[in-house]
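step 4 of 6: structure.
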Amino acid sequence: MNKINELLISIFVLFLTCASLPFPVQADASKTIDNSASDMIELGRKIYQDGELGDGSPVKAIVLGDIEVTGDQFTCLNCHRRSGLGGPEGTKYVLATNGGSLLVPRVDLYMERPAYTYETFAEAMTLGVNPKGTPFDPIMPIYDLPEPEMRALFGYLKTLSNKYSPGVNDVELHIATVVSKDIDPQLKNEMLQVLNAFIDNKNAQTRHEKKRYTSGPFYHEYRNKAYRQWVLHIWEVSGPAESWAGQLETYYQQQPVFAMISGVVSGDWNPIHNFSREKKLPCLLPNTDLPTIGSPADFYTLYFSKGLTLEAQTLHSDLAGNNTNGDIVQIYRQGTIGEKGAQASEKVARAGKTEIINLPLVENADWQEIKQKTIQPGVGAVVLWLGADDLEKYAEVLGEHLSSAPVYVSSSLLNGEYDLIPPPLNRAAKIIHPFKLKEDQQARLRQLEVWLKQNNISMSNPRIQGQTYFACLLLNGGLKHIKRYYYREFFLDLLDHGERMSLYSINYPRLSFGPEQRFLAKGAYIIDPATVKNHWVIPGH
Amino acid sequence: MSHPRHTIKIFITLLFLFFSEQHSSAAKFEFQKSIANYQIPDVVLTNQDGKKVPLIPFLDSEKPVMLEFIFATCTTICPVMSVSFTNLQRRLGKDTEKLRLVSVSIDPEHDTPSIMNKYLNRYNAQNGWDFLTGSKEDIDLIMKAFDAYVSDKMNHQPLTFMRSPEEKQWVRVNGFLSGKEMMKEYQKLIGQDL
């Protein structure tokens, strides 16, 4: 009798065990995993962000009940985001998976569940139910993870967004802007005036929050406790660009900041870009035409556009679209930003096997000789990476002898002010313009002007002032939605959902936000005065 | 000492409870299905290979068509919709070209042919699945025509539109279908509804 009982119970236990496993037990592929804590966390990060197991093979899962999905198609990061705090998308709300959320019980209007333990976490991952037994939405995959990987993932999640990022305390939020000492003082002032006025206004308008922070009603706690006074730091760098990283490190050690905003330096933004990546420090919309075109993994710096690289790509898209034949002659002044534009263009041309002839301008340049080289037969197009002064000189020597080949002018080198193009170029040259068209910009410029006037600032540089003001709006928008979750990655995750902010853009048309999108404006206009037409070009389309 | 009959009773009861629990804890699929007429705009889009695709003849195909609105950097909805297409093609085996799968980008500023190509490779797309992009104006027109327009792409819905070659009307599914349900819908499109 006993034997029959034992047998039945054994069958039932075996049945339960097998039925609880959605996948066949697989060979342990992770035997070589080093079990040191840091390696386990790194393995957890790889599973979460890259969808890879310890042996480098993709994570396997089942989504929507019966559809196989692998880690090279999508990963935890896709939905739960880099911060692990999830968020809304369309009709779905993705739950938080960071340590601070998983390891505490949840009792609120939307959900009630105990805190996760490793065991309930593993059950959630393999069976698709929370510790209370409530099933997840079918878009949450169920996973086929060997035990070491499951433990590694749980270990990683425990460390994810589990303490405030540096640069924020209970009362203050520190932000920095980077300027180089050799920058035009007026330009620096134009940017700093906007930053200071915006931050002063913000702090003044929320002064009552300080009181509410300590004595406000409990049901507004989430809002009141979110309040921080913003403190701006100006990090001025000087000397060779190679020394900037060390100077920024010194500033950071003195007072860490939560994010960098705006900024203006001479030359490439690269030293600041690298600092931002290494410190995992958000850097929001610097005023630069020379951003770092890095990999999608460069998560921390958000640019308006690819600057002169975007102009170069737009130029070559237009040339290809018009089946331009012949050499491309580029004129630029040596040692200026125009040289960077010419280099970017050469790089694009090389990929497309187009011949480029560079005519660098030096002091006392022979403009007659330059003119001859641009109007001779065999020239397919002339590209002028020149500022307003050099354009004047070129126009003067040209007289009415325009090149029969199309001539292109960079708008960025004129700070977007293409009215500065002198005759006869203004009647013939195509303008590569990555900014809003003048007629589309008026309403937003008027709003900016009113705001500047309210703050006793005159509108002297619509580009720098407009860009800096928009950077402030974006910072404000992100921090408004961050509530009290001051994690840098969450802040950037929120900005990825900032599409609505595009409406407020002053200088750039059609900003497009999204994860892995680190250059908000993707295209540029080609303005053609000869045909009185302009068209929007997105390189690669 | 319990009698085996008693143990069998407990065994059956436990089994019943186990299956009841399994049933009650099963994830819920929620979707709405409706039939609608849509006036397709006369626009020319670009596919993942950079080829121009006039939309009206492309959708007015001799094959059944399934169409979704997605974007390459979408975080939650699009990856799941895309694996659903991957799965459907896997189930179709050699017959992938008998069904026209169409993904239309709702982030045309970002989704260039090269990005769309990479995206399709990531989802192991086979012949018969195209990813289309175009000017923002044209994409807006298409979304409006399918009553799927959102001004902010992050607010998009998981919509799948299906049409069989003989039909003028589209089946509109708002929500996610399991692989099995998706296959069933395909069979309906080709008149093999069992």
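step 5 of 6: annotate
 - Chain B has one domain: 28-189.
 - Chain B touches chain A through 58 residues (CB under 8 Å).
step 6 of 6: archive
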